[in-house]
Amino acid sequence: MNDAIPSLRSASALVPSRAGAGLKAVHYQDIIDNQPDIGWFEIHPENYMGRGGAPLRYLERIRSDYPISMHSVGTSLGSHQPLDTKHLDDLKYLVDRFQPGLISEHLSWSHGYEWFTHDLIPLVYTQASLDLVVDHIQQVQDRLQRQILIENPSSYLQFKQSDIPEQHFLVEAAKRSGAGLLLDVNNVYVSCSNHQWDIEEYLAPIPAELVGEIHLAGHAVQALGNEQVLLIDDHGSPVCTAVWELYRNCIDRIGTVPTLIERDSNIPDFATLYNEVQYAEYYLRQSKEVNRVSTC
Amino acid sequence: MSQLAELQQAFCDALRSPEMPTDALLDAIVDDGLNLQRFNVYRNNFIVLNGDALADMYPVIKRLVGDEAFRVLATAYVRSHPPQARTLLLYGDQFPAFLASIPELVELPYLADVARIEFAWTEAYHAQEHPVLTEDQVSSITADAFGQCQLLPHPTLHCIGSDYPIYSIWQANQSCETDELISLDQGESYVIVLRPEIDVEVSTVSQGAFHFLKQLQSGAIIEAAYEVAIEQDSTFDLGVFLTQHLLDGTFFQINS
């Protein structure tokens, strides 16, 4: 890494209502060298749970220049098993060391046995699983001494046992635990398409004041035969036009919240990712102006 | 067992298995005629996401066997060794032994040892920070007492010995452009992997130096380690070795 350019800045912890990008190892040096004008970066804390080495050093350097958010993938809030206190300790260590402005986790599970799926598996939405998730969110918040945001999942199947609509389950889980919500607009689009849910009905019960962050990403289309398709949330392509459209509706309704462009596969060079971040930045500015005019 | 636990465990069983999911599991999924295809998205993700993590850790193995064979090996590995940790940083620790156990790979007997270099590289990359031995620490030891001291290698050091030229194989496959031919008749190699600062270093040492370092790693005093090394390799020159490596980051501490 390039230690020749020591940072003179000490960025605030606060994640601004601007667009941010997922921080990727292939972009570390580019970001340090070129100091792009970008609101914030998001990391998966599990990628920094090594005991030392380059990733933590790069993160330290980048954190001194930018606010960050932590988007956990390993807590397994919806698992029938107890939460892992060692993992919560590791998370707490990173939170104390890097002072993220926002912390989030998914409404899903990945720990079914003693091993981990490393994929986000959907929950059965019942009163019993709601009680479990609320208890798990509270345990995480108690350990971190912070509010966390819960993200709506993308999913490809539903369980027959579920008797609470996903959006009501999410809102109820957040309200009861004191958590906020991370609205993943691409996930709304993907899940509504995969399960023939109505997007308006999905979004209507979500209170604007609970939403602390928005995610945007690309998805793939998988043909299933008999003219049906499944949308696959692979974070492997630019955000599609329909999701941009939905995003603009969302920020006009709930306000301009920090918005992340997620990219986890087919990762382009930083300049390309930065251009996509600028779209979100543009829409956020536009929405702010529209709201300002309408409140005058 | 709770209903939720039963369902989650059945789901995990089916993710790992190449067989049809049980009727009980498929019955639990809302059925629009596509419930098997819907489930298969998760099965595929499980194999691909964890297989990709393995590919990131073992790029040289992937080049050596080819993309298609690597995918088959990764699928079998993910099914037999599902991830045991909440992070994927060190996923694949059993892959070298797994490769050694595959009968179809008997023609590539060096593969498992090359994989050991790649795993050691990743383990060193994420290892805890440790200082390196300094001149001040060494100068506090008198020449007479030196042989009786414990000289501790840096905690990130890994020693990998092989009957095959694994260093040349690993080195030649660091880029895609190479078409270098490596003769297996080059014979054995002794590789060390080390991260004294931020960069992981991979290099070869003599047979004597290799045994000397392994003895020191297990806590032997310098004199005893030297005796083992010289027995294995009569050409081992301790003075030359120490001049080169005592203060180059190979070592961590010296205790009298």
UniProtKB/TrEMBL annotation, chain A:
> What InterPro entries has UniProt attached to this entry?
MbnB/TglH/ChrH, Xyl_isomerase-like_sf
Pfam families the record matches: MbnB_TglH_ChrH
> What is this protein's record name?
DUF692 domain-containing protein
Provenance organism: Sedimenticola selenatireducens
Automatic annotation (TrEMBL), chain B:
Q: Where is the Putative DNA-binding domain?
A: 6-99
- Return the InterPro entries for the record: DUF2063, DUF2063_N_sf
Q: What is this protein called?
A: DUF2063 domain-containing protein
Please tell me the species this chain comes from.
Answer: Sedimenticola selenatireducens
